[in-house]
Amino acid sequence: MIAWLTLLACGGAEEAAPTLTFLAPTDGEVVAAGDVAVSLVVEGVTLTEPTATARLDPTAWLPVGVAWAHGEGAEAGFVRLTLDGVDVADVGTTQWTLTGVTAGDHTLTGAVLFADGHDPEVSATVAFTAQ
Amino acid sequence: MWRWLLACAPDPTLAITSPTADAVVCGEPLVVAVAVTEFALIPMDDPVTPGAGHIDLILNGQPVMMGHEPPFDIFGMADGRALLRAELVGSDHKPLDPPVTDEVQITIDHTRCEDPS
Q1: Pick the CATH number of B10-113 from 2.60.40.10, 3.50.50.60, 3.30.390.30, 2.50.20.10
Q2: Contacting residues for A79 by C-beta, under 8 A, at least 6 apart
Q3: Does A24 lie at the interface with B, CB-CB under 8 angstroms?
Q4: What is the pLDDT along chain B (117 residues), one digit of tens a residue?
Q5: Considering only CB atoms, which chain B residues are within 8 Å of A10?
Q6: Which of A23, A38, B25, B97 has the fewest Cβ atoms within 10 angstroms?
Q7: What domains lie within chain A, and their CATH numbers?
Q8: Cβ of B49 under 8 Å from any chain A Cβ?
Q9: pTM of the prediction?
Q10: What is the value of ipTM here, to two decimals?
């Protein structure tokens, strides 16, 4: 009982799962048309530049990439950005600029893809207006 | 009841004191200052010691730096919104249990530091 109470009092560790959220643009945000800054928070994935092989052949095997010194075992991956249903970029960074965004309402989706082609089915979507 | 309370040491705390939440910052480096209590900051290659370790800095979910001698200098930050998180970890590089973190959202705008002349 004491051990159980101690565990509750001190908390317990949890496994990290990939997550993706948008810092910018935010849902419902109004931005200037043209260049739109995108900022992502991506956890549980070590972002690396996507390779042509990974993009073209989802079954291709690629090295897991550079494991961080802390060795949490996060897989290497990248983010696929889709604007209004059209793939616009595969990015290995959390900050990106969309260019040529026309005035109007838009839907931006980011999806995590592992470098080995595996899709963890982690994505986020925001709707924004460019004017 | 008091026995299990004694089993828990005082909880470590960590706070990012600079930059502050929602700050707009520019220039290099980004200096990150933190305040730590109930936790000894020791070199990363020191033996694992309860109540001691170092700090990880994570930017937009991606690790960027680890160290035990704040303040920390981060270089190469791009313009835009960023979520800066600090976390206490042990010398085994594992988070504390429960994790001890703090985070601030900031905006990087290097144009604010450009020389107008």
Answers
A1: 2.60.40.10
A2: A20, A40, A42, A47, A90, A91, A92, A110, A111, A112, A113
A3: yes
A4: 544 554 666 899 999 999 999 999 998 899 999 999 999 999 999 999 999 999 999 999 999 999 999 999 999 888 999 999 999 999 999 999 999 999 999 999 988 887 665
A5: 7-8, 97-98
A6: B97
A7: 16-130 (2.60.40.10)
A8: no
A9: 0.79
A10: 0.81
